[in-house]
Design goal:
Blueprint: E1 9-13, H1 17-29, E2 33-37, H2 40-50, E3 54-58, H3 66-76, E4 81-85, H4 90-98, E5 103-106, H5 111-123, E6 138-141, E7 144-147, E8 152-155, E9 158-160, H6 164-175, H7 183-191, H8 201-213, E10 222-225, E11 229-232
Parallel strand pairs: 1-2, 1-3, 3-4, 4-5
Antiparallel strand pairs: 6-7, 7-8, 8-9, 10-11
Helix pairs in contact: 2-3, 4-8, 6-7, 6-8
Length: about 230
């Protein structure tokens, strides 16, 4: 949670002391409150006690690995998770996203990219400013309802559990029904900046979202428009 002086709080969970020290210095310089842990279990406990605004999580942790920590954090609430890993295959990225991570950054990485991803993720959690027009309480399309207050989805009577990034993606589609959204537009409005070289993220997330929306045998709502992007339509 944000601290009393308004600073966003970040929990860094990694057993590489030099890397953690470096990330801590960079984030602290940018004005974030930073806590750290070196094992998965310690990180999970600290996340539950301190309720940070963002968790930066290594995959290869001793004991409880990062993927299991991400799964347990997802079950316990909506804290965003940015996974760090030296594993850069599509399968590894998909495993991280399916575990509940909101983002996946491959080591080694540039400090500027880490900061950009941290800012983008935290921007998605900032409340509307004073005097801003409040969003509608719910978005509806066909038999799909998205409760924007509770951040929950339903398809007919069936509840659909979403990760925070899946919610952001679905909300984008539901705010622009029947409009083809290009990859670049989705990346900018869901992630907050251009993910150069990470073109697989959009289809991976769309695939995950489709599985959840169609898990009860319902018809497809998110369609691929070849060489153009994706569209929400019946």
């Amino acid at each position: 949670m944000a601290t009393r002086d308004g600073q966003a709080s970040v929990l860094v969970v990694d057993d590489d002391e030099l890397l953690v020290s470096s990330i801590r210095r960079v984030l602290a310089y940018e004005g974030y409150t930073v806590r750290t842990a070196q094992t998965g279990l310690a990180g999970l406990q600290l996340a539950r006690e301190a309720t940070p605004d963002l968790v930066i999580l290594d995959v290869g942790l001793p004991g409880l690995d990062g993927l299991e920590v991400a799964r347990r954090l997802r079950e316990g609430g909506g804290v965003p998770v940015l996974i760090l890993s030296a594993r850069d295959s599509v399968e590894d990225r998909v495993a991280g996203l399916e575990a509940g991570a909101d983002d996946y950054l491959v080591k080694p990485f540039a400090v500027e990219e880490l900061l950009a991803r941290v800012r983008a993720r935290l921007r998605r959690r900032e409340p509307d400013g004073v005097g801003a027009v409040p969003p509608p309480a719910s978005l509806r399309f066909a038999d799909l309802v998205l409760d924007t207050g509770a951040r929950e989805a339903r398809r007919g009577e069936r509840a659909i559990r979403l990760t925070s990034k899946e919610y952001d993606l679905l909300a984008l589609f539901m705010r622009h029904p029947r409009r083809v959204l290009p990859h670049a537009y989705i990346l900018e409005h869901v992630w907050g900046y251009d993910f150069e070289g990470d073109s697989n993220l959009v289809p991976v997330y769309v695939g995950q979202l489709r599985q959840k929306l169609e898990a009860g045998g319902e018809g497809r709502l998110i369609h691929t428009v070849r060489h153009a992007g994706y569209v929400l339509r019946e």
